[in-house]
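Researcher: We're reviewing a set of sequences before deciding which ones to prioritize for further study. For each one, I'd like a predicted 3D structure that I can look through quickly. This is Ferredoxin. If possible, include the structure in token form so it fits the rest of the review sheet.
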Amino acid sequence: MLKKGQNEFTQNASSKVRIKVINDKCISAAICIIQAPQTFDLDDDGIAYVKDGTWDEAITIMKAAKACPTTAIIIEDLDGNQLYPEK
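Model: Here's the predicted structure for Ferredoxin, in token form for your review sheet.
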């Protein structure tokens, strides 16, 4: 069963971004959790997902996405414009 943000975009009320983790690209490096611990966690299979509750600030989430060695995290603004990775 997929968790929040896995293979589909998710956002929360206080967020300025939408997040999607591409499961097939996630290699369980967990750098996203180190960079943005309020936003990301790993499921039982070691795949990153987006946590419920208050997320880290958008700039911190972007840094976490950029730190991912496989570019498994996609960030969009609330209008659906892709912020990372750049197109």
